[in-house]
Amino acid sequence: MKKPTIVLFDMDGTTVRHINPHLLGILEKIDDVMFKTIEWFHRKNPHPDFYLHSTKKPRLLVQRALHSMRAKPVEQIVQPCPGIYTLLELLKDSGIPMGIVSNSLGTGYGHDILTKFDLSHYFTAQIFREDIERSKPHPDPILKALESMNILLTSQDVVWYIGDRYKDVIAALAANDIISASVVPFAYGVKSAVAILEKGLSPEHIITSYTDFSARIYSVVKS
């Protein structure tokens, strides 16, 4: 395992977990449907980099409607994943810059979560659904996060991307094919763990506990 120079996190199910997992499942299904619909419209796009550099803001009518109907404050919807602060502190103390990359809206949700749980100061890059045209499993959100960090990446850089969904692993591998730095997916969750194994990656890329993972990588990030 190579020491990371940057670590990126998904948010829902990875940095924070839903108090009602059923709600997360519904939101993920909606996100999948939206992705397939957008793909159908964009299938004939001849310019793969267009959406990454486009200044056009997605309208996201469904996502905004869902969040506008939400009556509960974010602390009644989600809570930090167990051991996440231990991992974040370890990476911060090791001087490793971090970012958050989420398919969820930032306004009225994601940014509120980061503020409420005192997470914002850990992430120099904060990319949410309204910041990009194409969401994961496209690599665009990961590439946008790296771009916003203003770090000149080389072939010596190693980017860890931690996510809980199958699409997170696919997005990381797609980003790895585009940039010179190595983008390495890590799975925090069953669905992303399946993707890790299906893609022939080592089981060491599967995280069952952030506390255990922090202990396992301590010597790596401190080297």
Distance between the termini: 12 Å
Number of strands: 7
How many structurally independent domains? 1
Low-pLDDT regions: 47-55
CATH top level class name? Alpha Beta
Helix and strand succession?
Answer: EEHHHEHEHEHEHEHH
Overall average residue pLDDT: 85
With strands numbered from the N-terminus, the spatial order across the biggest sheet is 5-4-1-6-7
Q: Please tell me the CATH architecture by its name.
A: 3-Layer(aba) Sandwich
Class per helix and strand makeup: alpha/beta
- For this structure, the CATH topology is Rossmann fold
State the CATH superfamily name.
HAD superfamily/HAD-like
| Helix percentage | 40-55%
The Cα radius of gyration reads 17 Å
Tell me about the largest β-sheet: 5 strands, parallel
Brief write-up:
The protein is α/β, with parallel strands linked by helices and 223 residues long. It has nine helices and seven strands; from the N terminus they run ββαααβαβαβαβαβαα.
Search tags:
about 220 residues, alpha/beta, Rossmann fold, five-stranded parallel sheet, two-stranded antiparallel sheet, globular
What would your notes on this structure say?
The protein is α/β, with parallel strands linked by helices. It has a single domain, classed as Rossmann fold, CATH 3.40.50. The protein is built from 9 helices and 7 strands, in the order E-E-H-H-H-E-H-E-H-E-H-E-H-E-H-H. It has helices at residues 21-42, 50-53, 61-69, 84-93, 106-116, 140-148, 166-176, 190-198, 210-221, and strands at residues 6-9, 16-18, 78-80, 98-101, 123-127, 158-163, 182-187. A 5-stranded parallel beta sheet has the order 5-4-1-6-7. Strands 2-3 form a two-stranded antiparallel sheet. Helix 7 links the parallel strand 6 and strand 7. The N and C termini lie close together (12 Å).
